[in-house]
């Protein structure tokens, strides 16, 4: 399964276009434009699994900086500031990584 099995390729492209410039990435806006915020809990769990590159059950900071590239290989890497802001917004338990439930809460809130 791939992300385009769950999300529309045109919505993904629009979301990536919206944050092409460095330091322009907003997780909330990306989730809305890509259509992620409208997906069911089970679909978000599948999206999380696809984004968890090392299949550890968490998205760690080093994986998070490549978040946009998981949607399109030619997309840019998130800046250090964007990565830290994204992590801080989703990491509710303060363990330095994003779990599936934390990801789902962030996308749906």
From TrEMBL:
Binding site for Ca(2+) 2: 91, 93, 95, 97, 102
Molecular-function annotations in GO: calcium ion binding
SMART domains documented for this protein: EFh
Claim: Transferase is one of the keywords in the record: no
Domain EF-hand: 39-74, 78-109
One Pfam entry name: EF-hand_7
GO CC, alphabetical: cytoplasm
Keywords: Calcium, Metal-binding, Repeat
Binding site for Ca(2+) 1: 52, 54, 56, 58, 63
PROSITE patterns reported for this sequence: EF_HAND_1, EF_HAND_2
Family per similarity comment: Belongs to the parvalbumin family.
Role noted for this protein: In muscle, parvalbumin is thought to be involved in relaxation after contraction. It binds two calcium ions.
Name of this protein: Parvalbumin
Source organism (scientific name): Phoenicopterus ruber ruber
């Amino acid at each position: 399964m791939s992300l385009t099995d769950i999300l529309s390729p045109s919505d993904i492209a629009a979301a990536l276009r919206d944050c092409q410039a460095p330091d322009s990435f907003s997780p909330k806006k990306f989730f809305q434009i890509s259509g992620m915020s409208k997906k069911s809990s089970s679909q978000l769990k599948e999206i999380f699994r696809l984004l968890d590159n090392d299949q550890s059950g968490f998205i760690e900071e080093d994986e998070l900086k490549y978040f946009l590239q998981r949607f399109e290989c030619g997309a840019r890497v998130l800046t250090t500031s964007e990565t830290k802001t994204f992590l801080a917004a989703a990491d509710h338990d303060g363990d330095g990584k994003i779990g599936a439930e934390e990801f789902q809460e962030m996308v749906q809130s």
